[in-house]
Amino acid sequence: MKNRDWFVGGDGQYTACKSPREWDLLRDNYRLYRFLTEVEDVLSGASDESSCLPEMRMLVRRLITNSYWVQSQVPPVSENGEEVLLLYDELGFPLTVQTVTFAPGVKSNIHNHGTWGIVAVLQGEEKNTLWKRNSTQHSELSTQNYPIEQTGELTLFPGDIISFTPDAIHCVEAMGDTPTVTFNIYGETDPQKRYEFDPVNRKAKKF
């Protein structure tokens, strides 16, 4: 099935979401500036940004459906196997909007984002390995005592979109024989809540 929409929360579970029909998304001259304005409008009227994820997924899908320019913004793979291209950067603008390229086999660390996030696969395949805090551990949470456990895996293909709450934990790996290219948009990160995780030593550290 093409063009699937997914949601991942802090419990490490992925949920399939209803995707809008492609013909309902078609627009003439739909460009990045219009997308960003609509995103800001949605966020300004929300009391909880994570509750906006369904509408935000729709806006991302509308963008990648209508904007050849966004589809063409593919950063070349660097020597370390990955590259990030910022699509919009303005002082005071709170969102991160970028495309990311991973060479085949490149895998990220285990992390959260400390904010909501939406990722759309433009090319290639991306495996998301999902995690959650181990709820059987009753000791007080700290960076030196942060046990997590793997909850599942989900492989995304071109046209798939996945959304995350700020406490969702995952790592990503580029699968297949060609680079994976994604469009990513994230809210304003809370640096006190963004971590990378070490499941072996049960530790977390600031990202």
Describe the model.
The protein has 4 helices and 13 strands. The protein has one domain (5-206): Sandwich (Jelly Rolls). Helix content is 17%, strand content 36%. With 207 residues, it is α+β, with helices and mostly antiparallel strands. It has helices spanning 22-25, 32-44, 53-66, 68-72; strands spanning 5-8, 14-17, 82-88, 96-102, 110-111, 117-123, 125-133, 148-156, 161-164, 169-175, 180-186, 195-198, 203-206. The longest helix is centred in the N-terminal third of the chain and has 14 residues, at 53-66. The chain is globular. The strands form 3 sheets. Strands 2-1-9-6-11-4-3 form a 7-stranded mixed beta sheet, with helices on one face. The chain has a 3-stranded antiparallel beta sheet with strand order 5-12-13, with no helix packed on it.
Q: What is this structure's SSE topology?
A:
Layout lengths: L4 E4 L5 E4 L4 H4 L6 H13 L8 H14 L1 H5 L9 E7 L7 E7 L7 E2 L5 E7 L1 E9 L14 E9 L4 E4 L4 E7 L4 E7 L8 E4 L4 E4 L1
Parallel strand pairs: 1-9
Antiparallel strand pairs: 1-2, 3-4, 4-11, 5-12, 6-9, 6-11, 7-8, 7-10, 12-13
Helix pairs in contact: 2-3
Would you summarize the structure shown here?
With 207 residues, the protein is of the alpha+beta class. It has 4 helices and 13 strands. Helices cover 17% and strands 36% of the residues.
| Count of spatially separate domains | 1
Strand order of the largest sheet: 2-1-9-6-11-4-3
Strand content: 35-45%
Named CATH topology? Jelly Rolls
Examine the secondary-structure arrangement and name the CATH architecture: Sandwich
- CATH class identity: Mainly Beta
Q: How is the quaternary structure best described?
A: single chain
Question: What is the number of strand segments?
Answer: 13
Class of secondary structure makeup: alpha+beta
Low-confidence parts: none
The coarse silhouette is globular
CATH superfamily label: Jelly Rolls
Radius of gyration: 17 Å
Kindly state the mean pLDDT as a whole number?
93
